[in-house]
């Protein structure tokens, strides 16, 4: 347990401030002595402040803080610095919350009788940060609606005056660079806002003192350097001077990180080898951030995404701690090979130092991770600090020095061996063999669930788990071990957490290749017990179906070592095929199986049938077998008992793995022909409520089942023949009540049941700025996704846009047209930079094979259309959309160029993933712009692009334009 958890539990259980502080003292006294008193005070303060994110302005939280300060357990100086640092978070930006926190600090200072609100022993750098946070708080107070912020403006002004009173007499101690920052921020406040007279006078005095201290030459040199950095940031700058800089913008990385985690099973997802490394290299070159800024933005964005996630926190930790350091190690190797003289250690450590100054993020992540996976979890299995795990893994990958890690967390030097590795040592085996032993049939599927809850917490072991799973898939497939292979597949489709962890580290396509190869080549004719063998093959089939749907894999061709295998037959498993579409083998099998299942004279399924029928054949013929038997029963060609006997085989291990196709076909038959009567509804219910119905079947068929249950065409007189409530509960058990270790795809709005439920999560309240409207028309949902992303970026949060899902609703050209209208509106509010970054991500991110490349569509189809549309506007209205269009074109083409280079450099592939090369798109665009001689906007776009020296250096085709 941590201090943050103790505070949260006390608050949520109504514990008084007095008792809370007593418990805190007891907890601190039992803690290790490795924390200094300063660290204890910081943790105590942050443990309360982080709760304001969920309970803004709560009076009980105020009592906690006031009592802690009044008792002396929390010094005024420490509370002030931690509060002002936390106040930078947009989630605390409510006037009531900030005003009450200001008053606690101010009142406690006056009550103490001290002459200074900050401690004289405080480090100068920390003191500077606190004063800068005070300036930022006043800016926030002035920016909030006046109707709600009058009190806050007054208290924030008073607090800033106390801070400035302390530093004004010591201006000479301020470093020149920090003094320049203060001067800039103070001038901005004076010039932008109508300040209260007292604080204005003190700020003006402060500005005068700073100006005299740094001198005109230093100030001019600093301003010149700043302008140079903003507009000419090197040969790979972020927009070639077109568009403003965004060194404090986490939009780009938030979008990319969400894509890496969401589409972890795809090409350019987290588990796709070195592909994500190429993405990181391209971002580094495109943004032209310094190494320190690059790493800072990356980790701030990562922690922001993690702190926003409610249901997927453990998966984000698994990615940030378990996968990201390995990717960054490979990222650095690219530049080592290129002999680039970059001090990556120093950059990483400077970035982490900056990130660790964000206690609002750190504490929020630790709190989110503190929830146990189940009620039986032992205290010793509770996770250790998120930052400690991160530092340990960065250290293990050679990204930081041990001395730095121990400086940030002294407990690292005394860190014990993780419990799982200790268990392996106690058993006298290495860790890899220990994990492998848990994946054999000796460990039941139920027992594996308890063990999986432990390993999901031990992030440092995830990569080993993934490699062991891949190794076993390859060896079991080559050895034709159907029992062990089926058991491993059953584990993975039963426990999504295991499959998701594996997908973060290795290519799911490799697992599917081995599984499909096994299904294609396994011969039941040589086994002694074909009934058991076919049930194990069924587990492999269910794993393939589950993985294809869970990771939204639309490419059904899987290749390994120059051999390809197709899974295309899984596309048609829900179709009732006419007999003339069966192959000769399938026709023979159909007749044999129909007679065995639905003939009154049959003695059931014989072993010879199982030995001669391939799983693929059974998947293809099962829906037709089932539907034709039901039709025969309706026509009284077979009696009810014979039908029930045949159906019973589909609820047992011999055929229950074919139920995805059977259930889909049955529902389609019912709805298409309005067969809302027995035996159709009764048969469907018996299949869905059977104890042996695989969870995967309910997950993959949930959308169709729920559509049927809500179908208004179903006669009310037949409601008794279908127990809708029981079926819904069965679906909830399969897809709605997941453990914290499971992850789903994040989304900014709720999508309809036309999607596969269970394979894509409902909205996370923390991932949308507006509640999703259940009645929102499906065609409007992509627009809401874009609006939510812009709103999240505006609020300083990590935006997310699932482009693939949007394009499942709206065609690419229509989506891009809608996107443009939303970006223009955002740009009119001064958000051109965010709009540019969001557009660039959408246009250049490599996507699923079923999604057409977006950049060629935008450049060759949308841009000409937009130019024509802008030409028709009034001349006074053309400047903003023209500037935005130029900014997006320049940014997207430049980013595409760097992506091409990075992919070739990292993966040695020389094909384009964007439909066309950036050079080809630029050449065609230049020709098209020159051809539109009568268009004023076309000429303006051409001139602006040609005026950018670095853009022309990358795309010489624009020279002379």
UniProtKB/TrEMBL annotation:
Transmembrane regions listed in the UniProt entry: none
InterPro entries reported in the protein's UniProt record: Mediator_Med5_fun
Keyword DNA-binding in annotation: no
GO biological process: regulation of transcription by RNA polymerase II
Keywords of this entry: Activator, Nucleus, Transcription, Transcription regulation
Subcellular location: Nucleus
Entries under Pfam families matching the protein: Med5 (PF08689)
GO molecular function: transcription coregulator activity
One Gene Ontology cellular component: mediator complex
Coiled-coil positions: none
Assembly and binders: Component of the Mediator complex.
Record function comment: Component of the Mediator complex, a coactivator involved in the regulated transcription of nearly all RNA polymerase II-dependent genes. Mediator functions as a bridge to convey information from gene-specific regulatory proteins to the basal RNA polymerase II transcription machinery. Mediator is recruited to promoters by direct interactions with regulatory proteins and serves as a scaffold for the assembly of a functional preinitiation complex with RNA polymerase II and the general transcription factors.
Family: Belongs to the Mediator complex subunit 5 family.
Name of this protein: Mediator of RNA polymerase II transcription subunit 5
């Amino acid at each position: 347990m941590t201090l943050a958890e103790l505070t949260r539990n006390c608050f949520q259980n109504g514990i008084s401030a007095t008792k809370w502080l007593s418990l805190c003292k007891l907890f601190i006294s039992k803690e290790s002595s490795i924390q200094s008193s300063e660290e204890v005070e910081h943790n105590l303060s942050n443990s309360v402040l982080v709760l304001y994110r969920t309970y803004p302005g709560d009076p009980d939280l105020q009592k906690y803080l006031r009592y802690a300060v009044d008792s002396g357990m929390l010094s005024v100086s420490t509370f002030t610095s931690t509060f002002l640092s936390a106040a930078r978070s947009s989630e605390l930006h409510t006037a009531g919350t900030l005003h009450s926190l200001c008053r606690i600090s101010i009142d406690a200072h006056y009550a103490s009788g001290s002459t200074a609100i900050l401690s004289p022993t405080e480090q100068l750098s920390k003191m500077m940060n606190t004063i800068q946070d005070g300036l930022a708080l006043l800016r926030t107070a002035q920016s909030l609606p006046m109707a709600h912020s009058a009190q806050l403006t007054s208290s924030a002004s008073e607090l800033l005056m106390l801070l400035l009173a302390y530093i004004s007499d010591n201006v000479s101690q301020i470093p020149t660079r920090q003094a320049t920052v203060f001067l800039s921020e103070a001038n901005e406040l004076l010039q932008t806002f109508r300040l209260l007279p007292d604080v204005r006078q003190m700020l003006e005095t402060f500005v005068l003192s700073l100006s005299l201290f740094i001198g005109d030459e230093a100030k001019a040199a600093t301003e010149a350097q700043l302008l140079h950095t903003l507009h000419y940031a090197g040969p790979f700058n972020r927009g070639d001077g077109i568009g403003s800089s965004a060194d404090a913008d986490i939009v780009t990385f938030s979008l990319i990180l969400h894509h890496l985690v969401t589409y972890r099973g795809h090409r350019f997802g987290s588990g796709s080898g070195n592909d994500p490394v190429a993405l990181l290299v391209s971002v580094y070159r495109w943004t032209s951030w310094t190494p320190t800024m690059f790493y800072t933005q990356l980790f701030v964005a990562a922690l922001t995404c993690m702190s926003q996630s409610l249901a997927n926190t453990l998966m984000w930790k698994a990615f940030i701690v378990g996968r990201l350091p390995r990717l960054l190690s490979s990222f650095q190797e690219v530049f080592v090979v290129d002999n680039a003289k970059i001090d990556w250690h120093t950059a990483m450590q400077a970035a982490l130092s900056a990130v660790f100054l964000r206690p609002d993020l750190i504490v929020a992540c630790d709190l989110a991770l503190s929830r146990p996976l189940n009620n039986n979890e032992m205290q010793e299995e509770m996770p250790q600090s998120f930052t400690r795990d991160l530092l340990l893994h960065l250290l293990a990958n050679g990204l930081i020095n041990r001395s730095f890690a121990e400086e940030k967390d002294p407990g690292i030097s005394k860190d014990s061996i993780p419990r799982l590795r200790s268990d392996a040592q106690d058993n006298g085996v290495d860790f890899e063999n220990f994990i492998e032993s848990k994946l054999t049939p000796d460990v039941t599927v139920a027992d594996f669930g308890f063990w999986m809850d432990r390993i999901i917490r031990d992030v440092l072991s995830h990569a080993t788990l993934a490699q062991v799973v891949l190794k076993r898939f390859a060896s079991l497939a080559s050895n034709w071990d159907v029992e062990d292979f089926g058991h491993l597949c059953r584990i993975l489709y039963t426990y999504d957490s295991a499959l998701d962890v594996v997908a973060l580290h290795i290519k799911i396509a490799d697992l599917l290749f081995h599984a499909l190869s096994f299904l294609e080549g396994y011969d039941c004719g040589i086994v002694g017990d074909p009934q058991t063998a076919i049930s194990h093959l069924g587990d492999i089939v269910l794993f393939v179906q589950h993985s294809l749907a869970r990771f939204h894999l639309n490419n059904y061709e899987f290749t390994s070592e120059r051999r390809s295998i197709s899974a295309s037959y899984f596309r048609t498993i829900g179709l009732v095929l006419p007999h003339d579409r069966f192959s000769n083998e399938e026709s023979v099998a159909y007749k044999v199986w129909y007679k065995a299942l639905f003939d009154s004279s049959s003695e059931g399924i014989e072993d010879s049938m199982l030995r001669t029928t391939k799983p693929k054949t059974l998947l293809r013929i099962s829906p037709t077998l089932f539907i034709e038997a039901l039709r025969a029963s309706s026509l009284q060609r077979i009696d009810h008992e014979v039908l029930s006997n045949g159906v019973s085989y589909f609820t047992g291990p011999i055929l229950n793995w074919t139920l995805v196709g059977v259930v889909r076909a049955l529902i389609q038959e019912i709805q298409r022909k309005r067969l809302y009567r027995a035996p159709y509804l009764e048969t469907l219910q018996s299949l869905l409520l059977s104890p042996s119905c695989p969870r995967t079947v309910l997950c993959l068929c949930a959308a169709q089942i729920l559509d049927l249950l809500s179908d208004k065409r179903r006669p009310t007189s037949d409601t008794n023949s279908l127990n809708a409530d029981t079926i819904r509960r069965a679906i909830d058990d399969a897809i709605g009540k997941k453990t914290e270790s499971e992850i789903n795809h994040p989304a900014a709005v709720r999508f309809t049941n036309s999607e596969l439920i269970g394979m894509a999560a409902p909205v996370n309240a923390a991932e949308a700025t507006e509640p999703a409207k259940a009645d929102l028309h499906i065609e409007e949902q992509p627009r809401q996704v874009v609006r939510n992303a812009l709103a999240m970026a505006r609020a300083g949060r990590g935006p997310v846009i699932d482009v693939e899902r949007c394009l499942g609703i709206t065609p690419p050209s229509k989506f891009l047209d809608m996107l443009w209208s939303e970006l223009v509106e955002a740009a009119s509010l001064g958000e051109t930079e965010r709009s540019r970054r969001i557009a660039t991500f959408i246009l250049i991110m490599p996507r699923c094979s079923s999604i057409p490349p977006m950049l060629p569509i935008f450049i060759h189809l949308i841009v000409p259309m937009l130019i024509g549309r802008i030409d028709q506007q009034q001349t006074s209205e053309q400047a903003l959309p023209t500037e935005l269009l130029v900014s997006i074109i320049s940014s997207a083409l430049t980013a595409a160029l760097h992506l091409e280079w990075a992919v070739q450099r990292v993966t040695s592939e020389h094909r384009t993933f964007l439909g066309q090369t950036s050079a080809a798109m630029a050449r065609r665009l230049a020709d098209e712009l020159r051809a539109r001689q009568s268009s004023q906007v076309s000429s303006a776009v051409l001139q602006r692009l040609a005026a950018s020296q670095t853009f022309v250096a990358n795309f010489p085709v624009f020279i002379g334009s």
